[in-house]
Amino acid sequence: MLRVIRVNMADLKATVEEAPAELTRLGGRALVSHVIYSEIPPTSHPLGKKNKLIVAPGLLAGSTAPNSGRLSIGAKSPLTGGTKEANVGGTAAQQLGRLGLKALIVEGKPANSGIYVIKVKKNGVDIIAAPELTGLGTYDTTARLRGAHGDEVSILCIGPAGEMRMTAASIASTDPQGRPSRHAARGGLGAVMGAKGVKAIVIDAAGAKAPEARDKQAFQAVSKAFIQEIMEQKATTLFSQFGTVGGLSYLSKIGALPTRNFSAGSFEGNSKIGGKSVAELNAARGGSFGHVCMPGCVVRCSNIMHDKNGKFLTAGFEYESSAMLGANLGLDDLDTVMGLEKMCDDLGLDTMELGAAIGVAQEAGLYAFGDGARVLDLMLEIAQGTVLGRVLGQGAEVTARVFGISRVPTVKGQAVPAHDPRKEIGTGIGYATNPQGADHTGVIIFEGEDTAEMVAKSRQKQLTTAAYDSVGLCQMTDPSLEVMAKLLNSFCGWNWTAEDVAEMGRATLTKELTFNRNAGLGLATDRLPEFFEEEALSPHGGTFKVPVDKFEEVLKF
Amino acid sequence: MLRVIRVNMADLKATVEEAPAELTRLGGRALVSHVIYSEIPPTSHPLGKKNKLIVAPGLLAGSTAPNSGRLSIGAKSPLTGGTKEANVGGTAAQQLGRLGLKALIVEGKPANSGIYVIKVKKNGVDIIAAPELTGLGTYDTTARLRGAHGDEVSILCIGPAGEMRMTAASIASTDPQGRPSRHAARGGLGAVMGAKGVKAIVIDAAGAKAPEARDKQAFQAVSKAFIQEIMEQKATTLFSQFGTVGGLSYLSKIGALPTRNFSAGSFEGNSKIGGKSVAELNAARGGSFGHVCMPGCVVRCSNIMHDKNGKFLTAGFEYESSAMLGANLGLDDLDTVMGLEKMCDDLGLDTMELGAAIGVAQEAGLYAFGDGARVLDLMLEIAQGTVLGRVLGQGAEVTARVFGISRVPTVKGQAVPAHDPRKEIGTGIGYATNPQGADHTGVIIFEGEDTAEMVAKSRQKQLTTAAYDSVGLCQMTDPSLEVMAKLLNSFCGWNWTAEDVAEMGRATLTKELTFNRNAGLGLATDRLPEFFEEEALSPHGGTFKVPVDKFEEVLKF
Fold this sequence. Notes:
CATH architecture of the domain at 3-203 in chain A: 4-Layer Sandwich
Mean pLDDT of chain A: 97
Oligomer: homodimer
Helix content of chain A: 25-40%
Largest interface: A-B, 44 and 44 residues
Structural class of chain A: alpha+beta
Number of strands of chain A: 17
């Protein structure tokens, strides 16, 4: 029987209990969204004691299925005011799976302003005061914690941004080499963790045995066929050769790349910050592609980037980061953009939210496009927690508010990521309607213009994503409902059809949407900012024209 | 036939047209809320070109009915994201009435960042570039405009706060002596005016004749009886002797006075900033009570306050200002509190929003209760437009957000004014449910605890207020539906019953509520912050316990 750990930060006590019946068939995002929906008072303050931080591995966690180690982290979002699940790689989910844990739920708030580490291990939970970690970046934090707890542990931690309760704060997750380079980035979950006084969660599965599939033979066969399927996808080759940043020049070519605060869709400097330049740099400096962010990954989209001296700089330099910190800020110097990405990782910040916020700051006269030195200064303001830094660290919406700017690339307060909806119509429908706010996962649809077709595709995409985020499979594997059913049946001993998997996705989205409504996010928060309808996007002149009443159909099941 | 002026700031052109049939029986708040509801796209950005600033005198404007010169100003609020009508005294409404104007509607946004004065006069409208007024306080602005346009004009203007598009920015309205001491304070309407590039609206009724009542004899008789009624109210005597600040010590005594960021309901320094001290000061320095903010006022609740040198300091030093800038900041030095109030008037800021914001700043460690010098420094930050100043100038909600604070005294993003809902239960119901956000007018109910009774009283209070805000009568006169019907019938030649007046109130509230829903403010935004339910208020230990499902009944008609 799988277990649930509840940690109450008010009295610094933890309980370990068998997972209640209602959670038995839930994992990852389905579990996170269920707990948010059923346990968090929807109008409570996201940084208050009634919010809960929920960490849940997917249903296949700990198994040998390919790419099955995705982790869901969730809470009521301090950025959007609604439900939030941020999905992340790294090694944590696999260790939680080995420990037989369905979820870790952090509740309450410490009475003092203390800072703590929660350690989850085979025989229980430790809650350890850790004042020495105060203010440390995620790299120093994880280095110290590995020193204290061993190199084999997985670590989830926040940087200074989360401690300062910035709503652009992420939660870092360590990769197989122990680097805090994977991020549950969106929705300000780092601020929730910070408000609970939790600097890090250390997961140590030493002594725990990996769970075994109920039907080993079938599970192996399904896994093998699934690997074959993944390897045959065109994107897999691209990703293992260039990483996700390999797509940047294509996005610029079609005119969907946010450039200079969403004022253009193509960036003349795209080749300098895209896949080929990254590859050339790696060839020259000794970085690499084909890195995995979690054991069992067969896609290998992560990369290792070195600095001018040939030393490790950052891992997982992704498309969204290069686009939002590069093109969207008019920056075409790869070292500058990589440096910014590394700073975001270390401070514990969402690169997309930050890129959008600094883009907005340009309109306020605080930044000039292409001024790499200035953007570094702004990052230092954030690191130091100056008032300007705290404003930027809240993300694009608050930055716009403080400086009186009305052109704001956000949905439900969350920054629009690196796919301009004036070119990607289906993506725009997803930005508007996804209960998570404008997200970069689960909504991207590159092609198509017919509204009815795009509505149907967005619904299907969101539903499938909600399912694989619950199963724990990486989006890069693009699993079918059938594959998920087969993997779950052979691993868990269930008897699900593809329709059952779809139903899990539907139920999850419905709970998320209902929580949003209960939290006060009315129907009309499912909208794109008006400038996407008004300003034609160069070079193709596209605008977003989908009638808003169509949005209501998307998640009607 | 009454007329409507529309000014388009995009092309700097104005049109004057006869009021369309749908507006014929609307005035003041009813007209403002109707135009917001029917003309402003509900999800458009409040500082964008699609928002409209609507200025509308009440239905009795220009008449000789007592206290009938209230003015409604409205727009989609940049503070709440919902509908907003702010009601203000001064002389503007009477001049608009004499000019035969139903409304002035300012639309669009100038292409450049220019700053303009709109002058409304008998024979038309001038739109005048006024770069020389950039950055001026409301006192300097009105002094210069009176110099240019004569002492008899009425002026509505913004200070630096509105120019900086701060969402705590008010619109000042001049009193009979031309002082910008009356404010359409709430909801950040000054930021909307600022975003439209309008520094001031000058209203000059020279040459225009006052409108005559259709049935003069009846109108005079009703007016006379109404004056009698007003004079017999107990509050009238109190107000004319001490101003509204006369109630401060009573509110402290019963434990409803927000003290030190809403941490107590009684302030030990209440007598130093309340009515008697204000009276002693006036006796010593030559200030006065019994001042009127508009011609025809028989309540005379305004006051004139002098400084230590016996010179004019501020007018209209109200209860809400003394409470929120005094008790709520732990300040008991009357000169300091009056000085802050004057600074707010001059910068064009809502004293309630500012008091609440600085109260929140205390929790962020930016302020210590009782530190008058520090609060003056913070006001200077606002005046100078530093980043901290801009944050505070956004109000309590953004201040809390930037500094990661979860205890936030706001409803729909608007600061709770100076009646603590843990003592005034009925007021709390109104704060939660009023479409305007936590307002200080139209919802105050001093006594009672029974939920059903409080729900019914709040409904009636909100309805009656919506009616007299439309008729143009001051809330201090507390007019009955019957009196309003009689005044309207004899002045306008209508044939309304009290029920017709009530229906105007209902229709107005319904449009306001519908606009909020259409703007994305869901049902669950009609809530009080959770700390009012959790923290017992000293000295009486009260908490706010009304079940939230009761809120839905309040405005169901």
